[in-house]
UniProtKB/TrEMBL annotation:
Its main location: membrane. This is Olfactory receptor. It comes from Sciurus vulgaris. Gene3D superfamilies: Rhodopsin 7-helix transmembrane proteins. The lineage of its organism: Eukaryota, Metazoa, Chordata, Craniata, Vertebrata. GO terms for molecular function: G protein-coupled receptor activity; olfactory receptor activity.
Length: 310
């Protein structure tokens, strides 16, 4: 498809054109990205090495942290590098790769959040059947299906992107490649493609958000039949999940479920769900989860003890 285009590279305008603000963007998002990777990797290592975190909830949290790290990596490094670059050039192939990675790991995050909600629903509403329903084999199968679904979604997105002919100009008013800003540069009528985009990405975001909200309403309603201690523990877990869902889906719905119009705040909204949410997730899941914090402390004590013996 690239042979049919006059454009072989794009120029990303980034978040700002001001030199001082670009340095601030570099510093701020470097901190955010390092914090995202370190925080999520810490969760991944803790879950992998701790025997006390072997339940399905932490199995899914492992993949959420992995998806967060990859999702942020699909956009943050280029934003950070471009903040100090005079010419923010991205090749056509790199741009298409970024579109694919952005939707692959973003969709994977959506599916994992749904699986985590399903796990909480079974644990709270059907506790007697929980060990049988959420077996290890079932959890593994669900994750495989989530990867397959994410791959199908991102493949559909990249097919739409590859069908766009670009004749110039090649200035993308964004800090990353995505279908919305690319549609503005295409030298064709993009109404049908935008309709497909809303039908695909918009429908996934909206329907998933509604499904998650309904499931948590059912869960919270069922907690009235639990003991005070069980209710407190379940509320703590569900509150963390609800915070993550709202922070992630709010910006996604704003971006992907509307006509092809551009608003000044679009880039900042995109920053929030591509970089901000993956940064906040480790903080939400560790600061509000006593089991994860205890597992981290135990691993730290084991590591320091082993080093002191050397």
């Amino acid at each position: 498809m690239q042979q049919n285009n006059n454009v072989t590279e794009f120029i990303l305008l980034g978040l700002t054109q001001d030199a001082l603000r670009q340095k601030m963007v570099f510093l701020i998002f470097l901190i955010f990205y390092v914090g995202t990777v370190v925080g999520n990797m810490l969760i991944i290592v803790t879950i992998k090495c701790s025997r006390s975190l072997g339940s399905p909830m932490y199995f899914f949290l492992f993949y959420l942290s992995f998806a967060d790290s990859c999702f942020s990596t699909s956009t943050a490094p280029r934003l950070i590098v471009d903040a100090l670059s005079t010419k923010k050039v991205i090749s056509y192939n790199e741009c298409m790769t970024q579109v694919f990675a952005l939707h692959l790991f973003g969709c994977m995050e959506i599916f994992v959040l749904i699986l985590m909600a399903a796990d909480r629903y079974v644990a709270i509403c059907k506790p007697l059947h929980y060990p049988r329903i959420m077996r290890r084999q079932v959890c593994l199968l669900l994750i495989i299906l989530a990867w397959i679904g994410s791959f199908i979604h991102s493949t559909a997105q990249i097919i739409l992107a590859l069908r766009l002919p670009f004749c110039g100009p090649n200035l993308i008013d964004h800090y990353c490649c995505d279908l919305q800003p690319l549609l503005k540069l295409a030298c064709m009528d993009t109404y049908k493609i935008n309709l497909l985009l809303v039908t695909n990405s918009g429908a996934i975001c909206s329907s998933s958000f509604m499904l998650l909200m309904i499931s948590y309403i059912v869960i919270l309603h069922s907690l009235r039949n639990h003991s005070a201690e069980g209710r407190k523990k379940a509320l703590s877990t569900c509150t963390s999940h609800i915070i993550v869902v709202v922070l992630f889906f709010g910006p996604c719905i704003f971006i992907y479920t509307r006509p092809p119009t551009t608003f000044p705040m679009d880039k900042m909204v995109a920053v929030f769900y591509t970089i901000g949410t993956p940064f906040l997730n480790p903080l939400i899941y560790t600061l509000r989860n006593a089991e994860v914090k205890n597992a981290m402390r135990k691993l730290w004590h084991v590591k320091t003890a082993s080093e002191s013996k050397r």
